[in-house]
Each structure stands twice: as structure tokens, then as C-alpha cells.
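ERR on first pass: missing label on line 2. Operator R.T. fixed the label and resubmitted. Corrected input:
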Amino acid sequence: MDTTVDTTAPEGAWSGGNNRPFKASYGKMMMWFFIVSDALTFSGFLAAYGFSRYKFVDAWPIADEVFTHFPFLHGVDAPMYYVAFMTFILIFSSVTMVLAVDAGHKMQQNKVIIYMFLTIIGGAIFVGSQAWEWNTFIKGDYGAVETKGGKIIQFLDKEGNRVGLKDFAVDLHETRTSQEASKGIWFDSEEVTRTTYSFEEVKAGFLANDNLLIRTQYLDEHGHPTVLSRAESEAKLINDGKLVVEGANLRHNEYGSPLFADFFFFITGFHGFHVLSGVIINCIIFFNVVIGTYERRGHYEMVEKVGLYWHFVDLVWVFVFTFFYLV
Amino acid sequence: MAHAEHNLAIFRGRLKFKSNVQKIWGVFTLLSIITIVEVYLGIIKPESLMTSFMSEFEGGFFATLGNIFLSPFIYMKPLNLIFIVLTLVKAYYITWDFMHMRDEAKGLRRAVVWTGIFLICYLVMILLFEGDYIFEVYKANYIKFDF
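pass 2 clean. output:
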């Protein structure tokens, strides 16, 4: 070991020493290198998303039709407005963060306190918005049917408007018998994702209503989902239909490919986790600013370091926004 | 700790700000405008930007070469190309001005940016090619091309 450890290094080299490679302090440089590795993690996720999307490029859900809700505006078709709002919140909290860093350079404690506080509020609003977005996505919208091959078929009226399952499914008064462990040799407990209507109820309702059509996941040459004729629709539902899907989870997704939901949960979830940890770290630094730790230390470099992390979170969102919602 | 002066000019020196705070608000304005343009385009989706500008070159070696060099214009919808370019512009200003990359030493800048960009481009290229290959195999139900 003696040969590999440089015992001539000055005391305290690990805590910074006197060398300043790249004219940056130890902590700031390490924050940058952490950001590089974290950026690679995120790009791994986004590239995997791209891979799966290219794999099913002719049957991928259109984000505009998935994220159409805005809080308190029920039934209003508002594609992307909410996610645009979230983007602005995050950019604005980046601005207050960089203003806090700037105030720190000038040793203005009170300004740092105000700007850090605003940053934390922005981050909290963002995380809350993301929770709302998840909730809306999980709950679902119109409902759909999954085919035997695992594809999604959705329902339209003759004018091309989406129709929800609740608008046409008939109540067949079916009685459900729950399977119990005592009655079976091989027993799986019932899935938690039970739907409001059974497949038979949806099928009966569809066949009774001549005004309904089916559209498949596959996109035509203009990038719109293919709509089947009435005869084709009936045949499709009778021959291929299997399961009612309401909302999205890791196995089924009423908007289309389950992979879309998987990646949505995974990527926005991982990003949301970063925002959450950013808010927590910001809070710690905020209280340190309030009790005057950095005033006594003589510099506000900690604010700058946590600022780097916070901006990185914003930077990642810029890419998630583009590749999940826009492209 | 003495701090290095901020570089207060953006757009390659064409736009100079008087103070760092002013520069922050300037960059915020720029990022907001870009985001508004993105959202606007994303909602209206102009028909003219939905089909690619050029069609594939047919023929021999030079056609292949042309297809490779002009691939963003041949194989991508112009709208998506615009989104990606605008995203990179936004990423640049966040990194350079909010994260103060503009004020860091050249070595640190390159260690961070070049490493990241190289590895990300490499990974994205490999995965997108592979995804497209699998798509073609699914569609043709057979090996699409064999090395």
C-alpha cells in the first residue's frame, strides 16, 4: 500500500488543500462531476424511452391526447397547458435560485433568505403538480379495451369524438364470485385494478349502439390513430377484445402501449424524486442561511453548490418536457 | 472568498448586461420566450411542419452520403427538429448563465460538457438505431438486414 499512497501530500489535501484545479473549489468541482454522472443516468432513461418509441413508432400514444387536463377545469380540453405551467414554475424557481447565489456573492443575507424561500416554494409547487399529473394519469379518462395481443382499442362516435365506457356500457347485473384460497389449488389474489365494467358489459353496450366506432393504436400516414368502420369495429371487438382498461398502471395503459406508462412513471418519477431531494437540501441550506452559518464562514459557496444541483434538475426537466410531451 | 467577475455578455458578446442580476432576468426572458414558442407550436402543430423538408436521395454512394449528412432534414419532422434545437438552446443558457459555466475555467467546462455530450450522443445513436431495426423486423416479420 505504501507504494500507492502519496504520503508526501500536504495535510488536509482531501478537504481542499491549496491546489485549485480548474480554479474551482473541491466541493464545486465534485458537484459538477456528480451532475455529469447524473446527466448520464437521465440520458440513459430518455434514450431507453427513445428506443422503445422507435420500436413501436407506428403505435405510440400521442402526448397531446394523454395530458389534456388542467386542475379545476373539468371537461375542458387543455393539452399541455398544465405541463407548460409546470415548466415555467421550475424555470422561475431557477431564476430565484440564481438570484440567491448572486446575493450570496454580495454577502446580502436577507436577500439570500428571501430568494431561497421562493425557490423552495417553487419546488414544492412543482412536486405537487407532478403528483396531480400522476393522479390524473392513473385515474384515466375515457377507458379502453385491451385486445388479446395486448393492444389498446378506444371508442369514438361517428363525429370522431372520444366516448367514455360509462356512456355506453350496459349493466348486465353479473354476479361476481370471488376466488378464495380455500377453493383453489393455485391462488392469485384479485388484482387491485378492478374496472367499473366487465368486458361483456362493454361489448354488449357497443353492439347495441350503432353510433360507435373503434380506433386502434396504429397511426396512419398523417400520424392519427386508425379509425375502423362499423363492421370492422364489431369484428375487432368480438374477436380480439379481452379486457377493460381504465387509467394507467405498470401493466395496462388505456392510452396505448404500457411501455409509455412505464417510462412516464419511471422518468418523471425519478425527476420528481430529484426535485423532492432538491427541495429538502434547499431547506437545509435555507435554515443555515437563516441562522447565519455562511455569514460567519465568510462566503456563501454552499448556496452556489446547491444552486448547481437545482439548476440541473431544471435542465433535466427541459429535456423531459421535450421528449415526453412535445416530440 | 474572492469571486471571479461574471461575464455579462450573451449572444457572443452582442448583448451586454450592466449587472449580473440584469443578465439573470434577460436570460429568464429568453428562456420564457423559447418555452412559449415550443408550447404554441406543440398545440397548433402547423401542417407545414409535419412532413419532412426533403425526401430520401436514391442512387449510389453519394446518395447514401447525402442521406447521412442531411438525415435531420430527411428523416425527421421539421417540428420535432425545431423542438430539439430549441431544447438545446435552452439547455445552453441554463448551463452557461444559471450554472455559471460561462465563468468557469476552460478545463472544467470541457471536462463536463464534452464528456457528457460525447457519451450521450453515442448512447442515443446506438439505442435509436437498434429500436428502429427492431421496428423493421416486427413490420417485415423477418431479418431486415444481415451483417
